[in-house]
Amino acid sequence: MSGQTEHGDSSAPTGLGMSGAAPWSWKPARFVAQRLLLRPLVWSVTSVEVTGHEHLRELDGPFVVAANHSSHLDAPLVLCALPWRLGIRTAVGAAADYFFDARWRAAVTGVVFNAFPVDRQGGRARPGVAAELLDEGIPLLVFPEGTRSKDGQMHRFKPGAAALAVSRDVPILPVGLRGAYDAMPRGRNWPVRGRPRIHVAFGAPLQPEPGESALALTARLSEVVRSLLEPPEPKTQRDPRGSRAS
What we know:
By secondary structure, the chain is α/β, with parallel strands linked by helices. It has a single domain, classed as Glycerol-3-phosphate (1)-acyltransferase (3-Layer(aba) Sandwich). The protein has 9 helices and 11 strands. It has helices at 27-45, 74-81, 84-87, 96-99, 103-113, 129-135, 160-168, 180-183, 214-228, and strands at 7-8, 47-51, 64-67, 91-95, 116-118, 126-127, 140-142, 172-178, 197-202, 237-238, 244-245. A 7-stranded mixed sheet has the order 2-9-8-3-7-4-5, with helices on both faces. It has a two-stranded antiparallel ribbon with strand order 1-6. Helix 1 packs across helix 2 (74-81) and helix 7 (160-168) crosses helix 9. 46% of the residues are buried.
């Protein structure tokens, strides 16, 4: 899943809402797809650690989830790591030229990810889709880099996610995904063997400050996500004799 959320595609497939997202009536199907099929599958072929759930307790209403992007595992990891009360409502911006190029793929993407099409080539066939969804109270998952990293490193964030947060005065939930690229980089359609380790780290929500520009909020967001990608400090062990040993 990739693409900025500023531009949508009007050619939503039959059965999707006007915005391209799957209608609320598909909630039971999404529960089965996300929680009974997708999550057990991804968690069985990788070893996933999730931290930062304490930052999600007060989240309610619309917000923007923003994560670094290096693998097709990213959207499933974030959605399935969110509590169900949040994951069920979250809509994912998906590249129109990839996930919505065939009716069957669009339908599957809509049901599982509550996805709406975005034009990563810069077209403006349906501007404002992301803002419309936020106005309807629907949280969004976006990847500010715009596309998957080719080398696993986090690259420059575009300001679209922050612009949405500023224009709608909603918080941004930063997410750091570490290990997803090694588990399933570009060119692979299945994770590598051996249940590679992946860390999903939720940070504290960032609320736009009065008068803050989208560029300033983007800089704050990028800094936080980078910090979430840092490996944790090694724990200090105590020597049985009373002295510390590392």
